[in-house]
User: Fold this.
Amino acid sequence: MNSSSPSRSPQGPPPRGHENAQKASNRRSSDSAVPQGPSYAPKGRRGPGAERRGSWQDQRHAGSGRQAAQQDAELQIVLIGKTGNGKSSTGNAILAPPTPPFKVSMGILSATEHTQLAEFHMFHGTMKLKVQVVDFPDVTCDMTDEAVRKEVQLCTTLTFPYSSAICLVVRADVRFTPEEYATYRKTRELLGERMFNNMVVVFTMGDKLPPADRNNFQEQLQRANKELKQVLEDAKGRYVMLSNLAEGVLENQRVVNDDRHIGVASLLDIVIDLHNANVNSYGAKSLRVVLLGSSGSGKSATGNSILCTKPEFKVHTGLATGTKSCGKATASSRGFDLEIVDTPGISPKDGDRHGLSKDVQKWFSKLDPGPDVVLLVAKANERFKDEDYKAFQGFQRVIGDDFNKHVIIIFTGGDELTKKRTTIDDDIKSAPALLQNLLTAAKNRYMVFDNKTTSATKTLLQRNRLLQEIATLKEKNKGQPLQMSKKIATEKNYDTTTEESPVRVQPAQQSHGHSWRCVVI
Assistant:
């Protein structure tokens, strides 16, 4: 994000201690319909102190000689379930920030009317995590079909290309009813079967059960009704138990007799395993992107927004351009490898063919075999500049008709549109002919970016919408990147000795999954 974006490492509460609960020496064997899942206590994450949770700042280990911990995973958890089962409270317990991000209702009305997202950085044992929680509303609570459609679209965009896990929140102290099962089935149908491959059942209100029932919860499930047994089968036997979250009582302790009857810390173990399996199975695809635009259009801020990490590109608000020469940063996010190069903005002299040819050579030297998409960045709240259009025409002439097939226009300054209570569609209707021509060449592919937003939901939403649009365009182009003409390729190479060295942002995951490469110009 740019300098106006919120910190991704808010101060958290002191890490909680953990009492090591007794492990069962032998797991029960049964021919019950309840699936017998594996023990979800991954090797290497247990042991003394493995349950410690808190913000990154809480886990400095001062004087220990240990180097700063690296981010090991970026998790995303989707919460679904019937109103009153404790979805929002579960989200607050997972993140455990100083101020609970999700509103909790103690009455008969739902506190979650729209899809919400919150994120927090924490330690889980020795692992450094970025955890996002998506709280999806109960779609059976007096919602119109149009409202349901919008919430489903919002949730699927926030979870693109996949979520780490989806948690069905169920109360442990009351009977699982056919009506509740119907809500689960409808939500499953709306969000898509693929999302439910990584489902976990979260039982809340565990402390409401008598001690005997709580310690023998496995036996309680053997006598559950057919609907709950089907849900557990859908989850492949993955479930956890939490205490009375609504009253703020959270016991991060494993319940005796079964490793799957666990608290929040061990829930994260399950999610980490599901996340890793999902990343490994998703496959590897590359996506290479070039951003063009004049100085001050918001290219550097847009690059930071796409990175979705700490700001790597300097953003200047003065008259001088913030980017003097090419700079590069890379990052990984939930299976996506991002590579972004920030270079000086377009100026009137860039209409020169030789200068444009040198720029194109720079792209291809950093993005082999070539960019898949060109993002042209312009301000939504300012008149489209003649030099921008002239430079665009210059690139068309240098590269050819193939250039238009790979263009998407990014309008920055979405916050100004919100203040004016207008939309980009309204502004485009009265836009000058130059911009109209540009939109026609780009087949009306455009979107708005707000690089100043402090909303985690909006930040992820606009980023994922862009990634979806880019992936769709690449598929439409049958995976063929933008080609550099032989004439440009044979011209005298430009001097690379003044280029800045790449800056590597620690990846959230190993290089499994998609590779997204971006050049900012």
